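=== RUN LOG ===
request id: a7f3
mode: sequence -> structure
chains: 1
length: 400
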Amino acid sequence: MLVGKGFQEPFLSFSPCTNNMALAQSQQILEAFKRSTRPLICVPSGASADHYASAIGLARVLEKLEKHPTIVAADGAAPKNIHFLSGHEKILHNMENLRQFVIELDASKTKVDELTYELKGEKLFVYLSPKKGFWDASDVKTSASGYKHDLIICIGSPDYESCAQLYQENTDFFFRTPIINIDHTPENEHYGQINIVDLTASACGEVCHDLIEAIEPGLMDDEIATAFLTGMISKTKSFKTKNVTPKTLQTASKLIARGAKREHIIQHLYRTRSVSTLRLWGRALARLKTDEHAHIVWTMLSAQDFMHAGAEEQDLPDVIDELLSSSPNARITVLVFETAQHEIKAIVRTERPLDAIALCAPFHASGTHEEARLTFPNKTIAQTEHELIEHLKKSTAMPV
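=== RESULT ===
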C-alpha cells in the first residue's frame, strides 16, 4: 500500500478523544491546519449528503482559522436537499489553476516597455518589448510554480481512486502534498499522512465533530454544528440505521447544544420536496421491481420521465432514498436511468457487507463501496436492466 509517497511525515491513525495519544495526534492535526495556507477539501465520486455537508462544515472551521479553503467534488455540485447550507455554491467540479508556468526574465540589462500575447492555432506567443536594447535566450528562464494547495483533506474517500478524475488527472499533486484522510468505513486504506478513521462513527459528520472537539471546541459555531448534524441525519436516515450508537445520539445532542438547527435540517432533508421531484418519485415507484430472494429492488427512468416530471439528474438521490424507505429489506437498490443526452447509466447502492464497487466491477464502476455509478454505452434501458440485474442476482448468490 502506498502511503505518503515523497514525504517523511509520520503515519498516524486517529481515534477521536480516547486518550492522551489521541490528544497529541489532534495537536498534530491542528498544526497541519495552521501550517497550511490554501487547503483543498476533496469530496469523492458517488458522495452522499454527509460527505458534502461535512466538507462545508470543515471549510467553515478552516476559515475561522484564517485559511483559504477550496472544496472540490468529483461529481460537482452538492445535492439540492442541502442547498440550505451556506457555502454549497462555492463547491468546484475540477481543480482550477493548480500550478502556474513561470517565465523569468532578467530585466537588469533593459526594462520591459510592453508585454503582449496572441494565440495562433494551438500555440501561444508572448511578446516582450524592451525600452532599449534587447534580450537573448540566456536572459530567460522557465519553470513551474509550486502547487496552489499545500494540504489535502479527503472526506469519505476510502482510497485514492475514489476521488476519480481529481486524482487521475493530478496524481503527482496527491503524492507530493500532505493528506488528512477522514472516514468511518472499514474499507478505508489509511493512505494519508494523518488518518482519522473512526469505525464506530455513524457518519463523516460525526467524525468531523469529534475532530474539532479534540482540536478546539471553541471553533464550533451554529453554522458548523448545523453542517455536521446535517451529515449525520442524512447518513442515518434521521437516526434509523443500524450503525446508530449511544455515542451517535450523544454527539447529535452536543451539536444541537452548539446551535445546530435540527428542525431546519429535517425540513429541508425530508419535508421540502418540489413538485417535479414528487412526479419523478411517482414514475420510479410505478415501475418498482423486486427480487426478495436476492434482496434486490430496482426501477427505471427514461429521458421522457425526466422531461414530463420537470426533474433533473440532481433529483436522483431523493428518488433512491424513497426506494430505500419503501423497501426496508433490500440489500441492493438499483436505479437505471436515461440522461437527456440519451446515455444509459445506473446507480447501485448496497448495504454492508456487500461492496457496490466490487459487485459492479465488470461494468467499470466508479464511486464508493456503498454507491457505485455505471455507464452502459450502446445499450437500451431494457438491455441494461436485464444485464445488470441478472449479474447482481448471480453475484449475490455466491459468498460475498
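=== NOTES ===
The longest helix spans residues 381-397.
The chain has three domains: 12-96+147-268, 101-144, 275-397.
=== END ===
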